[in-house]
Amino acid sequence: MMVPDGVLTDRLTARRICRQCSASYHLEYLKPKVEGVCDRCQGELYQRKDDSEEVILNRLKVYHDQTSPLIDFYEKRKKLYTVDGNKKIEMIFSEICDIIDKLNKP
Ligand SMILES: [Zn+2]
């Protein structure tokens, strides 16, 4: 799944989670009806410690240093399938299903 770092940072720093039922919200894209309150259970919404910008930037650095070299590894073996994670959820799901279908054909 390919998503630019800036988009990931925006998604995560604005994410809020319900303390009671763990429902996920976003301050811009999926706002609760009442600020700071879960629509489902009226629980308090909070920001996870690992959703702070500092932690996210460090996680991205670790990813680029340690995990992203695997992209070349799998690409050279023609086993890399890339999905654009910056599209709508339905499009991403459809692309993943298409890849799985291709892999399951003899
Ligand atoms: Zn809740």
**How many DSSP H or I helices?**
4
- Return the average pLDDT rounded to an integer: 94
Q: How far do the termini sit from each other? A: 25 Å
Find the count of extended strands (DSSP E, 2+ residues): 3
Low-confidence stretches: none
**H/E series, N to C?**
HEEEHHH
Strand-residue fraction? 5-15%
- Overall helicity: 40-55%
List its salient traits.
about 110 residues, mainly alpha, 3-stranded antiparallel β-sheet, 4 helices, 3 strands, about 10% strand, binds zinc ion
Q: How would you sum up this structure, described in words?
A:
The protein is mainly alpha-helical and 106 residues long. The protein folds into two domains: 1-66, no CATH class; 68-106. 45% of the residues lie in helices and 8% in strands. It contains four helices and three strands, in the order αβββααα. The chain has helices at 5-13, 53-67, 69-76, 89-104; strands spanning 15-18, 24-26, 45-46. The protein has a three-stranded antiparallel beta sheet. Bound molecules: zinc ion (ZN).
